[in-house]
Amino acid sequence: MSKVPGVILAGGRATRMGGGDKCLRRVAGRRLIEHVIDRLGPQVAGLALNANGDPARFAEFGLPVLADGVADHPGPLAGVLAGLDWAAAQGAKAIVTAAADTPFLPRDLAGRLMAAAGPSGLALAASPDEGGRVQRHPTFGLWPVGLRDDLRAALEGGVRKIVLWTDAHGAGTALFDSQPFDPFFNINTPEDVEAAEALGAA
């Protein structure tokens, strides 16, 4: 499969960071979203940002800003759906998503997800935790445009947990190494910012 568009998911409310746009916090002198753009951008055929509220606050990045099409902040699946609707309008067959708060995401994310896709075309990223158990990272995925109506119906029916929906469609798993640290390390608290600063300097 050739490159597909990418969507950065930044629609959360960052309650553990005191609210606001977590992706605009700085790590290693740059905002989180800049790290994500630099890593994901070369892997995909164009980028968009899923975020709610005034899109002007992201104008400097020059990306389309896609608001959730489902009310009441139902979570990342709404951002995935917004991305699928955007991609469908461009004639794309799928999208790759990444969370906006992960400054070390893999530089081969898109290719590995495509290689791991299940029969439905879905795939999620995963990595081992400290105990060796595989942990899925459901905001990092390959999502076929052909399933967007099914996803819309699921959201309207109350589904919020990503893996409930992806498991029902037989999503494949792309397993990434978590050494020397997990590339899906994400920023949720001020302490995480400090940890990321240390990792960035390592």
Count of helices? Answer: 6
CATH class: Alpha Beta
Major sheet summary line: 7 strands, mixed
The total of beta strands comes to 9
Q: Would you tell me the overall average pLDDT?
A: 91
Q: Count up the domains.
A: 1
Structural class designation: alpha/beta
Spans where pLDDT lies below 50 across 5 or more residues: 14-18
Fourth-tier CATH superfamily name: Spore Coat Polysaccharide Biosynthesis Protein SpsA, Chain A
Given the C-alpha coordinates, what overall shape results? globular
Task: Give the name of the CATH architecture.
Answer: Alpha-Beta Complex
Strand content: 15-25%
| Radius of gyration from the alpha-carbon trace, in angstroms | 16 Å
Taking the alpha carbons of the first and last residues, their distance comes to 35 Å
**What is the helix/strand order?**
EEEHEEHEHEEHHEH
- Identify the strand order in the major beta sheet: 5-4-1-6-8-7-9
User: CATH fold name, please?
Assistant: Spore Coat Polysaccharide Biosynthesis Protein SpsA, Chain A
Helix content: 25-40%
